[in-house]
Structure to design on (205 residues):
């Protein structure tokens, strides 16, 4: 089973995702949960909401393992790197983003034109095991290109990704699939924590 990222360029209407499968599953996945500070004064246990959860992981790409394939053989891993970079571009960085930019430019001239909505990142779903299928926001992407072909196209690279888990309250009402995934993700964690009580006793015996 391979982990992957599913990117929905249109967070509301996009129902057909573009896939970024992990060529090799990362050897390490780091999760950080940070408590949200509450209001000053009063109980030191009061918080502003549930913890913010983030993932960091490194994925490896190697065109040499698929050099006989038509796209990889001709272009290296450049197209897949561009797809990953698009996860940080409003509208996914493709045709939709271009159309949005043109609409924004035309709507910025006044004359009673309707306001242009704020740019929105593509909805991304991290699929990492059956228990971890969750909507996320890609916060940062660091690409290390470590090998090139004769045309200086990248053929080997590692990509460091930082992701923030989105909860139901972070999603609009139109994002029904993402809301279901977010709710299920938290429900699985709650159920697992219940089993963890018994496991704690088991490990003590």
């Amino acid at each position: 089973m391979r982990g992957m990222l599913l990117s929905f360029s249109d967070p509301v209407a996009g129902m057909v995702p573009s896939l970024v499968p992990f060529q090799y599953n990362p050897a390490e996945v780091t999760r950080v949960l940070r408590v949200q500070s509450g209001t000053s004064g009063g109980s030191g246990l009061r918080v502003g909401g549930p913890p913010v959860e983030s993932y960091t992981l490194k994925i490896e790409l190697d065109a040499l393992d698929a050099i006989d394939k038509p796209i990889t053989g001709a272009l290296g891993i450049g197209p897949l790197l561009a797809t990953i970079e698009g996860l940080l571009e409003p509208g996914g960085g493709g045709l939709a983003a271009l159309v949005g930019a043109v609409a924004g430019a035309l709507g910025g001239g006044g004359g009673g034109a309707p306001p242009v909505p704020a740019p929105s990142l593509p909805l991304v779903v991290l699929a990492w095991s059956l228990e971890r299928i969750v909507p996320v926001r890609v916060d940062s992407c660091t690409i290390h290109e470590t090998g090139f072909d004769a045309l200086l196209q990248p053929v080997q690279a590692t990509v460091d990704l930082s992701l923030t888990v989105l909860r139901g309250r972070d999603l609009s009402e139109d994002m029904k699939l993402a809301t279901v995934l977010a709710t299920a993700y938290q429900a699985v964690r709650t159920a697992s924590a219940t089993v963890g009580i018994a496991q704690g006793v088991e490990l003590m015996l």
